[in-house]
Design goal:
Shape of chain B: globular
Shape of chain A: globular
Number of helices of chain A: 0
Order of helices and strands of chain A: EEEEEEEEEEE
Oligomer: heterodimer
Number of strands of chain B: 9
Number of strands of chain A: 11
Largest sheet of chain A: 7 strands, mixed
Order of helices and strands of chain B: EEEEEEEHEE
Strand content of chain A: over 45%
Helix content of chain B: under 10%
Largest interface: A-B, 25 and 29 residues
Chain lengths: 117, 111
């Protein structure tokens, strides 16, 4: 079945841009929604946003001004950029696949990102 | 936007049943039948166990069931097993501005 794997720096400095990539194996990006979610330490999950394989995006209004999600179908990857990060952006970041965006079928194992100088 | 409200923790002995509530508003849980539930074990990929309020994906044991009444969705685990000890989060569509919201999360402990 499809597998997802997040990758990127585990440490980002405050005010810089967090960049993560999700690599999709054993499946195509076509016809699916590709979502980013995060889990801050001691808190609950937060929906960051998604991109449809064709490029349509929707973002969490509270993060919209700082978030960009993009897709690279040639590499079977999609990416997250979060600008002007602060310590509050420290979290485990997950990527997920959805046929319909309200139901996240498959997830990656997550990657921990710490924001610290 | 506010997260959906879940109890912080629930517990039960093996074989017992536990129910986790997920309370939202008439703008999310109450309006749409788009509630799903996810199981999180530390260090592992989260797993979808219920979607569309009551639907169970292939491979998920039938001891997991979902329901909804008004603004509150519920996940019931019948015949609790040791491997069910995990964190559980609900998730709902919340309209064309908020889009999607998770619950606050519930830790299930098997005594």
């Amino acid at each position: 079945h499809v597998q997802l794997q997040e990758s990127g720096p585990g440490l980002v400095k405050p005010s810089e841009t967090l960049s993560l990539t999700c690599t999709v194996s054993n499946g195509s990006l076509t016809n699916y929604y590709w979502t980013w979610i995060r889990l801050p330490p001691g808190k609950g999950l937060e929906w960051i946003g998604y991109i449809y394989y064709s490029g349509t995006t929707n973002y969490n209004p509270s993060l919209k001004s700082r978030v960009t999600i993009s897709v690279d179908t040639s590499r079977n990857q999609f990416s997250l950029k979060l600008s002007s990060v602060t310590a509050a952006d420290s979290a485990v970041y997950f990527c997920a696949r959805a046929f319909s965006p309200e139901s996240l079928e498959y997830w990656g194992p997550g990657t921990l990102v710490n924001v610290s100088s | 936007q506010s997260a959906l409200t879940q109890p912080r923790s629930v517990s039960g002995s093996p074989g017992q049943s536990v129910t986790i509530s997920c309370t939202g508003t008439s703008s999310d849980v109450g309006r749409y039948n788009y509630v799903s539930w996810y199981q999180l074990h530390p260090g592992k990929a989260p797993k979808r166990i219920i979607y569309a309020v009551t639907q169970r994906p292939s491979g998920v044991p039938d001891r997991f069931s979902g329901s909804k009444s008004g603004n509150t969705a519920s996940l019931t685990i019948s015949g609790l097993q040791a491997e069910d000890e995990a964190d559980y989060f609900c998730y709902s569509y919340a309209g064309n501005y908020i889009f999607y919201v998770f619950g606050t999360g519930t830790k299930v402990t098997v005594l």
